[in-house]
Amino acid sequence: MIRSMTAHYDQSVHKMLPVWSHYANENWCMIGYHSVSVIADAIVKGNVEGIDAQKALDASVQTARTKYYDGLEFYMKLGFVPEDKNSSSVSKTLEYAYDDWAIAQMAKKLNRTDVYDEFSRRSENWKNVYDSSTGFMRPKMNDGKFREKFDALQTNDQGFIEGNAWNYSLYVPHDPEKMIEMMGGKSKFAAHLDELFTMNLPDEFFAETEDITREGIIGNYVHGNEPSHHVAYLYNWADAPQKTQEKVRMILKNQYRPTPDGLGGNDDCGQMSAWFLFLSLGFYPVAPGSDRYALGSPAIKTAVLKLENGKTLTIEARNQADKNVYVEKVSINGKPLNRNYITHGEIINGGKLTFTMSDKPTL
User: Fold this and answer.
1) Over the stretch 218-262, which tens digit does the pLDDT of each residue have?
2) Pairwise CA distance, residues 335 & 322, whole Å
3) 165 by DSSP, 3-state: which?
4) Residues 6+ apart with CB under 8 A from 113
5) Roughly what angle, to the nearest 10 degrees, separates helices 53-64 and 2-11?
6) Phi-psi category of 23—alpha, beta or left, where left has phi over 0 and alpha has psi -120 to 50?
């Protein structure tokens, strides 16, 4: 995949990695430059056989510095994309910031300090569109002021794409700690997530939400499109992992069925299905480009991953049952795992990952 991406870069008149390559042509279908997150994830995790990692990093940097691409000139100059210059500005600012963090992570791995410093700074640009007076990310104008017209429930013409402010304001997968701090701290943040999942979203507010219908929405949590797929795991950073566990199992029951309409939205490039698989195994990559996977609540009894290094990882969920959505304890190769994540190294080293399930949360 990465060799194909760099070949696209070599042959591109834009000298950019693919944004949405289709039949060997760029059609600019979506926002961000997310090729870099795929490349960064591979490099950070050591999957570099057959890849010129330095060249891939250079291609990522060149892509991220292409001023004429989709508001990047303003993003680099102002630290955000202004809505009066480029639409869907908040979504673009947030996704560029994540991609920039991904570039910084591979630069760190490859000992490119200058690139690491530049893109670490850029990765904090998400802070520039956070409005503390409303508690949401909000579109800014070219003069640096927040746009007056703002509705946190509305999707259309609010500075977002395929999601509203309630969902997209949570899109800081690379720095959830700082995001939670800015949003009022752990207790307030957990209550905010509770409201997201339980509030009533009137029909008028999802009428223009792309690709999905009411069936893809739980409360105001939009599972049927992908910007929200990490959201249930954010409770882990708010000292409420039990809520991650109950929410992911609830989403699984609500959004996935063995029927012709069994997916609650658009399975873009397989992401709805990938979420199902990760959830079922008990962990999820909240921020590709990191070597950590957030723990959740497995839905399987046992599973065996045959790894390409010849090793196997057996995953076991003891006391598995529909009502036993809470994780009492986790161990890897018999040793307690007293944290809310597992590392890539622990997965590829193989062995046995054991979850002990319960019908009561472990507080």
Assistant:
1) 999 999 888 899 999 999 999 999 999 999 999 999 999 999 888
2) 26
3) helix
4) 107
5) 50
6) left
